[in-house]
Amino acid sequence: MLKIQTFKGYLNLFLTDPDQSTFLLAVSGGADSMTLLYLFQKTGLKFEVAHVNYKLRGEESDLDQKLVEDFCLNNSIKFHLYEVSEKDRKPENSIQNWARDLRYQFFRNIQKSEKLEYLVTAHHLNDQLETFLINLSKASGIRGLAGIPANENGVLRPLLNVSKEEIYSFAEENNITFREDASNKKNDYLRNFIRNEIAPKLFETNSHFLQNFGKSLNYLNQTKQFVDQQISDLENKLVTKNDSGFLIQKEKLSEQTDFVKFEILRKFGFEDEKEIAKIFITENGKTFQSKDYLLTIERNELVLVENSKVKNLSDTDSIELTIDEKNEIVITDFLEEEDYKPKNEIWKFEASNLSFPLKLRRKQTDDLFFPIGMIGKKKISKFFKDEKIPILARQKIWLLCDGKNNVLGVVPYRQDVRFSADEKTENILKVKL
Q1: Same-domain pairing of 248 and 345
Q2: Are residues 193 and 281 part of one domain?
Q3: Residue 71 lies in a domain
């Protein structure tokens, strides 16, 4: 049974010292959020209130706002309001997702500006049941079936173990005014259909159904926590971080179950089971891309680089080079230290064979050259592979080219023999690496 005296006990499950914490309450005006507001007000915690008026239900939306705003005014509680306007483009579909994204962005902005540590919502046990059944229908696995987390990423949900019936009883006993959203009675959405049609039938079959569901969900959550810890331990063994991204031991991960592969790669945005299966049977050099990362298969490793970094590394802008008074080009005069590590070598060219100006650029498709010490021509991509240059390093390599885009060398690995100077060359151009 929900009581004021025990409410702080719920918070103590998540926080070391609730009295020293600051909160932002998301209050819609319904029974659950008005009860949450009442509980916080009675316990004397430091909090402010946020409300979003979506303007979707005309006067009803305005009355919701007035109820919450008046409560805050009468109790000297700081109130934050976001009124949806024409600039907030409403999608034709997924109104619920749009509304959720909008309000959470508003809440986060308020938290940041007001320096409030935690966002608190009034989700309850009935919400857990609805979410469980929705996720069950989507085949979402243990992560979805474990339900809404009570404490995650700074969001607290202290009423998750309290039923809607208990909340209504508490509101009635304490004369808490709230408003009912008539649209919740419509079965337009799957959640509403479950709430109005499915859940009542489940409760009819067993008067303790919801309480038993709560216990089962708790067991499932403990299982999830155990599995998460096992995955984390394995991840620490198989995944290493470097300056460019992450390296995963491919062979050792391939020995794991499909579930483990999915859980580890999911963190990098790979959530398609068929695509994940392909990763472990595809040849070296092949790439896969998620919304967050580019994954490249390199021998015994999976190389992961953030997409934003890949874009920077693959930049094909060229750098025009100038010759100094000594008839030399010093590469370090044109490249930043973090982009190039100098090498104590000099390339000598037959200047009369070159088309000026010379330039540095990134590799392009079908680039080739005639490397010194080798017979015939070779594609740059094949040269990288033969020299066992790591894939990430390849993306950072510069090519020295002339004005006709001929590749004069792969800096600082190998010069092109066609343009190199010999003992008979009189007009020598030196390039210091």
Answers
A1: no
A2: no
A3: yes
Place of tokens 């950072």: 396
Note whether residue 408 is domain-resident. yes
Token pair for 294: 């580019």
Calpha distance 36→25 (Å, rounded): 8
- Examine residue 230 and state whether it is found in any structural domain, yes or no: no
CA distance 153 to 189: 27
Q: Is residue 158 part of a domain?
A: yes
Of the candidates 116, 124, 127, 28, the residue with the CA atom closest to the CA atom of residue 69: 28
Query: Are residues 153 and 108 in contact, defined by beta-carbon separation less than 8 angstroms?
Result: no
What does the pLDDT look like over 64-97, one tens digit per residue? Answer: 999 999 999 999 999 999 999 878 876 766 788 8
3-state secondary structure of 147: coil
What's the pTM?
Answer: 0.73
CA triple 207-133-168, angle to 5 deg: 50
Across 372-399, average pLDDT = 87
CB 399, CB 363: distance < 8 Å: yes
Residue 357 dihedral angles phi and psi, to the nearest 5° = -80, 155
Among the three residues 194, 223, 252, which one is the final residue of a domain in this structure? 223
Beta-bridge mates of residue 288: 295
d(CA 203, CA 217): 16
Same domain membership, residue 165 and residue 92: yes
Which CATH number covers residue 104? Answer: 3.40.50.620
One-letter amino acid of 57: R
The sheet with strand 328-330 has its strands ordered as: 328-330, 428-432, 346-350
Domain with 349, as residue range(s), is 319-432
Q: Of 277, 294, 312, which closes a domain?
A: 312
Clarify whether residues 132 and 170 are in a common domain. yes
**DSSP reduced 3-state for 151:** strand
Number of domains in the chain: 3
- For the chain, give the mean pLDDT: 91
Name the percent of the chain in helix, strand, coil, to the closest 5. 45, 20, 35
